[in-house]
Fold each of these.
Amino acid sequence: MNKADIGLIGLAVMGQNLALNIDDHEFTVAVYNRTVSKVDELLNGAAKGTRVIGVHSLEELVNSLEKPRRVMLMVKAGQPVDDFIEQLILLLEPGDIIIDGGNSNYQDTIHRTAYVESKGIFYIGTGISGGEDGARHGPSIMPGGSPAAWPFVKPIFQSIAAKVSGEKKGDLAVPCCDWVGENGAGHYVKMVHNGIEYGDMQLIGEAYHLMKESLGMSADEMYKVFSEWNKGKLDSYLIQITAEILAFKDVDGKPLVDKILDAAGQKGTGKWTGISALEMGIPLTMIVEAVLSRSLSALKDERVAASQILSGPKSTFTGDKKDFINDLYDAVYASKIISYTQGYMLMRAAAQEYKWNLNYGGVALMWRGGCIIRSIFLGKIKEAFDKNPNLGNLLVDPYFKDQVESAQPAWRRVVATATQMGIPIPAMSSALAFFDGYRHEWLPANLLQAQRDYFGAHTYERVDQPRGRFFHTDWTGHGGDVTSNQYQV
């Protein structure tokens, strides 16, 4: 029997589609599933007539692979990954490679990389984005882990990844996959991708809410707006599918979207992004609001009860509908810039914390195709980092500065209108608040520091003294000289 180039464990939707994608690109893949009947179902179904090799045990899987053996896990994050690692370590040899392609927490990947490497085996934790269709026809792939393993998986990963056109006419298509960094870097970048995805989806939802509730637009009318938006700066996968969803009719000919319960689900990666931001001290306000908005939506029964008790403004929209939609377009775009700005701030902080050498323009390139947040917008981010690899913040890049500043009047009108009408737009409004805070030379944190020193002797710095010197005041006249230790989150 011919040896396989890579083994794949886990034949749910993503695993099956990746296996078929690998086969399409003329690599031989051996597949295994804990419920072995799924192996036979795949071979007798979608994989019939392909080179895909089915195996019924881990021993058979390992024996079917070329050396160094490459084994990819597409199983549920958490304990199942650890369980398979323990079993594979007993079967693999030094120099072999274990790859986790699930949505694992980056902290777990950091620990697993060290553990697996201690056994002489290489480890890769890779983010994969694009859903079912992306897995089948070309996802965005974000690998990190043991650098020595990358040359052995690079040909496969870059072949099966989505491709985007080169920067110049005639350039070869560029794969949406490149090495991200050591240990947990790949899963961290995927985590931030998912956090930004939460933000993008929330912004679109808020625009939809305003069109539906303040303007009284039908699903068909909104379909036309989002279709038009997808031809300009907001051209993206999520805007595209929003238009398609709004146009989709149920069996009775009415919009299906109107029949879907307004209680959002989530799998945790957005929450992890927010937790990491809190740990790093990065103001990831817009993405966190997007995560919390899903949590608020899930309180459906409470909201229904509260709607019978609590009241808000009764105002109706009296402005020009077309002008407001144009304002909304600018507000969404400006807020989107803030979301990505915060995401990149978080990645930069994590890179410093974990000593990762992240290529920020390269990350934007990996996200340009295949993944859920793919958009024309990401090309602008890549251009910004190509011009200035040391760019500290997207908002100070000339393009993004001009875009946000030109959108300001419309952005503020949208936030003011929504507030006056009592329509919640937490992502857009928090994005604007972040922008206003970031552009202010002075913020009222001096009073906050005085309060902290008053009740807890936490000390403060003075504007007339060098940074790094701390002072304490006996505010009450009966305090002491002892102060709290200094630390920064």
Amino acid sequence: MTELPNLPFDKPALLGIAPRLRALQEEGPVTRVRTAAGEEVWLVTRYDEVKALLAGGRLGRSHPDPERTAKAKLSALLSADDYDGEEASHTRMRAQLVPRFSARRMRTLKPRIEQFVAELLDRLAAGPQPADLHSALSSPLPVMTICELLGVPFADWDRFRQWSTGITDLSDNENSVNSTRQLVGYMAELVARKRTDPGDDILSELVAERDPQLSDVDIARLGAIVLFAGTETTVVRIDLGTLLLLGHPEQRALLTGNPELVPAAVEEILRVGVGDSGLRASPRYARSDITVGDTVIRAGDGVLLAIGAANRDDRVFPEADRFAVDRDHPHPHLAFGHGARYCIGAALARIQLTAVFERLFHRLPGLRLAVPIESLRWRDDVLTGGFAEIPVAFRPVAERVPSRATPET
């Protein structure tokens, strides 16, 4: 009997994908593997097949027979155990949240995000060197943005960041559960306050609707999901985008000399900067028999979608491993998912990334890593991966580069 490949795969290049993952992609669109939790699942690696499975509604987070699955969880906040009610619950959640991320609201929020970026960069520029870009910019910006959107006091952002990171803890399920409980509990207290002191924010809107099917705990949980989903992955993308540009000086020069390329650069960062995202999470499960290539995935089988590999599929993206800020993107990357599972906060993440990479290298000229890139530690202990710190240095700048932001009073 052939030994199954074991996840996670070794990844020698910090910003690349695992060679074994690439080899499996070349062999075919789907293969049987064993997860770190010991569960045998199907790994789908090619773009067309991953995209189809994201869109088709044929995979779910819950299993019809939970006792058959490994005990590892996606996270205490995002895991699903109600097989029969999962799709209906997901549909209700999207119906509540999608209107809250309207184009009008995103346009309104954009100047505030630009202001946040400018202020964080000013603080970073004025501080000692080497500095930690992760803690000074990448980590606080998404939390500040979500606090603004939800109507959460900025003074509590550090607590939220700690809880959000704890939720993703793959090595300590108790920490994930406790972090989830603390975050939802805080949100429940905030929801109660919104009933008497509402604001122009998502939590206040959900409270004001007085939906009989939506309790205060339900609203609190929605708020916790928004805060978690809207922070962790954006933090990682800011760090990865910075490292990609630092590691490709010709692309950085092209971007700084042609600021109109920033939107395309953001899409390329999103495409390339996914890595092996999702391969350490608990799998999705087939809700019916699915044919992928020549393979039939049976109902109840676990499935992992290798989005990072799909986004580097040469069948779709020519020279897929090449990072190019001026790349044309006729095919959408899958960093935000696809179809009914497409990320609600995709537009918000793009605004934040655009605001960062419009300003970063102008505000911090000569920005460079202060340590060898090989010394950076990719976090294997949390669901979203990412880095513990990004030490950087740069040339001092006497005054701030003017921002296009229009601060609100």
